[in-house]
Design goal:
Layout (H helix, E strand, L loop, with lengths): L1 E5 L2 H17 L4 E4 L6 H8 L9 E4 L1 E3 L10 H10 L6 E3 L8 H14 L4 E4 L21 E4 L2 H7 L12 E4 L2 H4 L4 E6 L5 H9 L17 E6 L12 E3 L2
Parallel strand pairs: 1-10, 1-11, 2-3, 2-6, 3-5, 6-9, 9-10
Antiparallel strand pairs: 4-8, 7-8
Helix pairs in contact: 1-2
Length: 243
Amino acid sequence: MKIIEVKDEQAGGKVGFEIFKEALADNAQVFGLATGSTPITIYKELTASDLDFSDKISINLDEYQGLPGTHEQSYRHFMAEHLFNQKPFKESYVPNGLDEDSEAQTAYYDTLIAEHPLDLQLLGLGQNGHIGFNEPGTPFDVQTRLVDLTPSTIAANARFFASEDEVPRKAFSMGIGSIMKSKKILLVAYGENKAQAVADMVEGPVTTDVPASVLQNHDDVTVIIDEQAASKIKNRDLITTIA
């Protein structure tokens, strides 16, 4: 696990951009993408660049159940606003939040990932250590499924809605088993509120209580964090600092 500490989110966006650029140079074909505020600076760097994804495939981690792709808080809408409208991919996949047959939707997504193995997977990190919507207690071998969101995750996402009551209670999520099959993983986390989760991910035991800790078992993981998110890592020798 390579850990890079940067000054702030803007610097992190530049480092993340370079990792995407390197992946393209290495002939990456399939990019696993994430939503939320954390990856926005990376997407800004990508959209401002001359990188071309028009012959590539993107597969998103998750989507709220019950929201159409046109809803301003749906993850499909988020991706269109922050990346796809400016940098279209040949094909872009996001779970269908309106599919009433959840088993069919998850089976479809698992088949999709099997047919298009992930070359680079971008991840954020929840305050409780979740990746995607794989909450604490999720088995490490689980595939795509419909999950119940925890109260802490609902509260964290409430800032994007008019009220917490409007936040969906369920979401389709790529499983940890699928994430771990990615050739390369890039995880990004910023802020003091992520510091404990970062420390547990990096230095704690590998446990389903901290889903992101499983990344210790992956062969190629890069973690980008700012000074606040790095503040609880005890072994500073693990960290490469970029001014």
